[in-house]
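Task card 7
Instruction: Convert sequence to structure tokens.
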Amino acid sequence: MPDVRLSLLGALLAASLYAAPPDDARALMLQARALQLRGGGEDPAAAAALYKRVVALVPGSAEAHLRLSEALQEAQDPAAALASARRAVELAPGNAEARAHLGLLLYQLAQKDAARWPEAVKELRAATILLPQDPELWARLGEASEQVKDGEGALRAWLRLGRIRPSFMPAWEHAAIQARAQQNYEGRRESVLALNARSPEDRHLRMLEELAREQIQAGYLAHAEESFLLLARHLPQEPGLWENVALVRLQTSRFEEALETLARAEALKPTPRLSFNTALAQMNLGQFPAAEARLRKLVDQDIEEARIADGAQALYAEALLLQGKGRELLDFLRHHPARTRVAGELQVFTCQAHISGNDWKSALAALQEGIEKFPKVPFFQQASELPPKYLEYRFFARKEARAALEQLHLEGMAAIWSEFRRWDKCLECLEKARTLGPVRGADILIMQSSAYEQVGRPDDSLRVLREAQKMDPTNPLVQNNLGYLLLERELNLEEAATLIEASAKATPDNGNVVDSLGWAQFKLGRLDEAEATLRRAAEVSPFSPEVRKHLGEVLVKQGKLAEAAEQWERALAFVFPDRSALEKRLGELRIRMAKEQAKKVQETPPPVSGADPVPDPVPDDDGEDQP
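Output:
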């Protein structure tokens, strides 16, 4: 039996029109609502006629104008609906429903009349401020912004939609396209990661791989590791992905983690490069016998990749030297001619092996050969500055001649130990070297100061830097390091600033020194100067997380919170020791910003035209594929 209830209801409502008192606007509104499609009715034209009567009775009713516009739109007359929609917004600019209706109506009209796109963008943007969690508004705003070639606006809209509906892939795809076009790194990273978060398509994986490689080139190692790990999660049988993760960890001195991922890559496909990098990680962890065994196999192979072949020879020599195996090193070098790119380095190791074995005659011969063939190698530069008679064997009966070479050897060994961050061994060599003769250069004192700092002896570090200052008071590196240490320990801010200013004048293109100068100005409360200096440091050293951290601190102090957050976000693209602490501070800063923005929105009347949206809405990922 057919359901006649709707037709009966329509007839009753139609009949009631004539029964309603002519001045009863409320009754007319109810009757009209029932006729609208969205009210369950089937006659929007009749509803529009009733709403017009209401508007005549109550011309200042935003509700009546809004419903009239809705009814006309339902009756397939969107052009006629526009005037009432605009009037509703004029009467009630803070009415979210009216604003959203106007924006969506303009979007519909713009499909056939491109001249309406700018107004559609304006009204949709205003609507998103009032209804920040409405996915349809963000979707239409993204489309409309693209139509008016507003790439930044489109990117913001698509990113917002993606955050509200993380599973809605078209939003992220649009965002990725816009971010690439706008060269917006953060937007691109967010969208590409989102596209690959679940079950990505092949094209999404290619986008992620491309992003990861660009992050490596830019020095954004923390982000690159994140991208390569995500790729490896989807493609666990690809050894190259695990190797890339390991390389990032090697570059950021996380050697145990590097060994883990290197082993995973090697289990899939062993290569000389993987074996070399594994040995390098083992060396940095003090696992010298294991590294030696690996490297011995490598140096006996015919390796095509020159970098690995060169590196294996030099690293194997260091492994033997650091284990006190001078004889084995000399025997190896006799049977394996030095490769061209590492010949100078291996000549240094030859000298050190002879000195460590007290073979002074051979040591002198190797030293003289090195001075002649490799005059630019620091070890041989220092040797050439010794009194000439010290390099003649007939004078080696003299204690001071042998002491000079032993000192040179120990300082060289200290440099090798520092290369592998064995600061205790580095200090041991340096302190012993100083018993053999006076320090010949400030660079040795700088290394000793750094070693003291690394082992937690700041007083000794300061003492040695003061010694370096007396030896070479105009040395820019001494000035910068001493000034920065005084800053960090808050011992003498004025002296620190004076030292760093002098260093900056001597080395104006040194990003570390410019950063130190900006930090000194910040510590002294000279915020405007600090901001200008640190911005210059960021230009000179764009890949320095320290500069970004310091600039963020200055901006926070100045109340420029949004830009401070941006600088800290950039810093977090890199890897550095206190990264987790900065992540926490950035989170706290974003909460503070959100609270201040929410308070501002509550205190400020709703805008008539588009403005920056309120902070990101809470994601609502219910698995739907529609915005």
